[in-house]
Specification:
This protein is mainly beta and about 775 residues long. Helix content is about 5%, strand content about 50%. The strands form 11 sheets. Strands 10, 11, 15, 16, 22, 23, 26, 27, 28 and 29 form a 10-stranded mixed β-sheet that branches.
Length: about 775
């Protein structure tokens, strides 16, 4: 009745308790124990367990845990905290050795508060009890016997002394006496034994004796050259003229395992830990998984268990200690079955075996592709708990880009790897030119920085790879600026192998200075700044707000002048004033008309010689015109081997305006006659080069007809540049007299391109 009532109380408590948290991984009934497994990330270091029964709550901590049959062990490698409770643990409710009811509190510290979770379970063993059961736990030894196995005084026992005070005890007063080696110790009452940390229970269907490991009454013996810990207790009681005596012996191997050079772990234990029984069966497992007969050998009464490092259930951990090391841990479970006179003894042993620190070698393979100019290095045999943190190439910390990438590699088993791809042209790659073989020697020192999880301890793995291939042209980076385009070649160490060209002209420092470029060339780096209105610029998408300027550089082989690369950069620039003469015969002009406008006039009302040709766009002061060179009243002249196309921007005279004179802007495009094709045979305009643009102002008397224009001002082209700059125009004006047109308005010039690109309109601007 009491059992039924208590079971009902347990059931009610389990219903009313908090739900089992996600951090509890398992609550399993094993053959002879109940196991609770908790996630270490949930439990933390301060988690504790309490056993609960009808008398109260009891903290499970050493030495009480060993005395009462509880084992609490942490497994950091698997992230588990385990509580193992013997079926005969102190506060377990037992019914006929078949039903065992457990109740525990798990106390977890969360946010500075303690949260209590009630964990209840009722277990029934799946395996029938043997006459004798011996358990060798990590913190205690336990022996249990069936009640009918008890001996009577009819059997002679040399350890019995008729003068022992037990003869004077009451009929049910049990005594326990320990034997250490050949030394027989004084007996003590069960209450005294319990005070010293032992547990003896003579109620129910089985007799139980439990001893914590390392007690003074136990001793170390050598059995078949193997150290075992032995506790030998004799339990006896005088019942009238009969004496009941029971020998309780537990012997557990103390072997901690040894690592063999063959790469295996070996654990050994005596075939029979103490004389008498014959071993009939062996079962071995790791972390609860069992298998029979594998990797077991019996030699000279010694049981050898050979454990491969990769056995299922084994645990591996990496360690960073300058280099990479590893160790393996095996939570060994050994079960031996002995038979003697049709009586069974079943011994269960749990041990944690650990290898020493073993070096773990990472494998690198050079799988470079010379034809593709790619270093490919594979770092293999990287353990699962190791991650790549960063990368250094020739001592430089690098970011992962198109020229340097890292990818994961999946490998069979538990390991993985990384595949590194680095272009020969990456700035970090060292290059050395061999004049003898006319090849480039490429070398790369790679330092992998790796981290061991979860500690985040770092270690480094270094490898050097080399390759030999033909030299590679430099890589030019281009960046837009407010004033132009900035080009950079960072791998210019072997610039003597290459040349840069703008159109058909090889870009030398002298030519760059003449064209107004800023060019610096060191042993490792070349920089070039090209102002926006410089020789070689091409222009398109011109509006009053902005236009697109494009500059192209050719990279050539020095010896053969073969074009190896073309680097083109297009940038937006704000529009002020400009004139563009295209290769397909169009003139595009953005002009400031503020000085030309009569009263009440706007740029939108301006026009060309053909008064029907007005601006495409206009604002308060500027107008945008775009016209064919032979339209809108344009005039054509031949002068000194050049063809000149000229037009004017002006306002029609207002009859009511009292001003006698008014201003015009003369716009013109000049093309060398030799660059034109089919000029007089076809209507289509086709020029090899953009034209040379010019804008000037002139003042016309009111009585002068708009069709009667004076001769065009001619200016000699500077032979060094093929174009003009503002400063050059001023120098030319100062050096020789020029015919002036009306007022002294200045004219600014810019360099113009001498080359063209098929299919692309090319422009030559003049900035006012």
């Amino acid at each position: 009745m009491a059992w039924v009532l208590y079971s009902w109380v347990l059931l009610l408590a389990s219903v009313l308790a908090e739900p089992i948290p996600d951090g509890v991984l398992d609550m399993e009934c094993h053959e002879r124990s109940f196991v609770i497994a908790v996630d270490l990330s949930f439990a933390g270091d301060d988690t504790r367990f309490e056993a609960v029964d009808e008398t109260g709550t009891y903290a499970i901590a050493e030495p009480y845990a060993a005395k009462c049959g509880y084992t609490v062990v942490s497994y950091p490698l698997t992230g588990r905290l385990e509580l193992r409770a013997s079926y005969f643990s102190c506060h377990t409710e037992k019914k006929e050795s078949q039903v065992f009811a457990f109740r525990f509190n798990m106390v977890v510290k969360q946010d500075h508060d303690e949260v209590v979770y009630v964990l209840n379970k009722t277990c029934s063993p799946s395996l029938e009890w043997s006459q004798r059961e011996v358990s060798c736990e990590v913190n205690y030894m336990e022996v249990s016997l069936k009640s009918e196995a008890l001996c009577t005084a009819g059997k002679e026992n040399k350890n019995w002394n008729v003068n022992n005070p037990a003869y004077g005890s009451s009929i049910f007063d049990w005594q326990v006496m320990f034997q250490r080696n050949e030394e027989q110790m004084m007996s003590m009452s069960l209450s005294d034994a319990r005070e010293q940390g032992y547990m003896v229970d003579v109620t129910g269907e089985r007799l139980l004796f439990r001893s914590p490991n390392g007690k003074p009454e136990s001793f170390i013996a050598t059995v078949d050259n193997i150290l075992v810990e032995v506790v030998h207790a004799t339990l006896f009681s005088r019942q009238r003229w009969l004496v009941v005596m029971v020998d309780l012996v537990a012997a557990c191997s103390m072997d901690q395992g040894s690592y063999e050079d063959s790469g295996q772990m070996v654990f050994q234990t005596p075939v029979a830990p103490y004389p008498g029984p014959d071993m009939a069966q062996i079962r071995v497992g790791f972390d609860g998984g069992l298998y029979e007969g594998e990797d077991l050998a019996v030699s000279n009464d010694t049981l050898l268990i050979t454990i491969p490092l990769d056995v299922n259930g084994g645990l591996r951990k990496s360690v960073a200690n300058g280099s990479l090391y590893e160790f393996y841990t095996f939570n060994l479970y050994l079960e031996q079955l002995f038979e003697e006179d049709e009586a069974e003894t079943r011994l269960r042993l749990r041990r944690t075996l650990t290898t020493p620190l073993l070096p773990h070698l990472l494998v690198t393979q050079n799988e470079s592709f010379i034809e593709e100019r790619i270093f490919q290095v594979e770092l293999g045999d990287v353990p699962e708990d190791v991650r790549l943190v960063s990368l250094r190439l020739n001592g430089q910390e690098v970011a992962f880009t198109n020229s340097c990438s890292v990818s994961d590699v999946i490998q069979p088993g538990r390991d993985h790897g990384y595949r590194l791809r680095v272009s020969f042209d990456h700035p970090a790659v060292m290059q050395q030119y061999s004049r003898a073989s006319k090849t480039m020697q490429y070398s790369l020192d790679i330092t992998f920085t790796l981290s061991v999880l979860p500690e985040n301890d770092l270690f480094y793995h270094t490898v050097r790879v080399t390759a030999e291939a033909g030299p590679s042209p430099p890589v030019l980076d281009a960046v837009c600026s407010e004033s132009g385009i900035h080009f950079t070649a960072k791998n210019w160490a072997f610039g003597f192998l290459w040349s840069l060209a703008v159109g058909s002209e090889v870009l030398t420092p002298e030519l760059a200075a003449r064209w107004g470029y800023q060019m610096t060339n060191s042993s490792q780096k070349l920089e070039l700044d090209v102002p926006v209105y410089s020789q070689g610029f091409h222009y398109e998408d011109i509006t009053l707000e902005q236009f697109l300027g494009t500059f192209e550089i050719l990279i050539k082989e020095q010896q053969t002048s073969t074009v190896l690369k073309t680097v083109t950069k297009t940038c937006p620039f704000p529009t002020t004033e400009l004139i563009v003469c295209s290769t397909d015969g169009r003139m595009t002009v953005v002009a400031n008309l503020s000085l030309l406008m009569p009263r009440n006039a706007t740029p939108a009302t301006s026009h060309l010689l053909d008064t029907s040709c007005g601006p495409l766009e206009a604002d308060d002061s500027r107008a945008l015109f775009s016209l064919s060179l032979i339209s809108c009243g344009s005039k054509i002249k031949l002068s000194e081997g050049n063809v000149i196309y000229q037009n004017e921007i002006f306002y029609s005279k207002n009859q009511t305006d009292s001003v006698d004179t008014y201003k015009r802007l003369v716009v013109q495009c000049l093309y060398p006659l030799e660059s034109l094709h089919r000029l007089f045979s076809m209507y289509r305009f086709d020029s090899d080069n953009p034209g040379l643009g010019k804008i000037s102002s002139k003042q016309i008397a009111a009585r002068v007809s708009t069709t009667a224009l004076p001769d065009l001002v001619t200016t000699t082209k500077t032979p060094q540049t093929g174009g003009y700059t503002s400063s050059q125009a001023r120098r030319n004006s100062a050096a020789r007299p020029q015919k002036r047109l009306g007022s002294k308005s200045g004219v600014r010039y810019v360099r113009v391109s001498k080359h063209g690109r098929k299919g692309v309109k090319e422009w030559n601007p003049i900035r006012i």
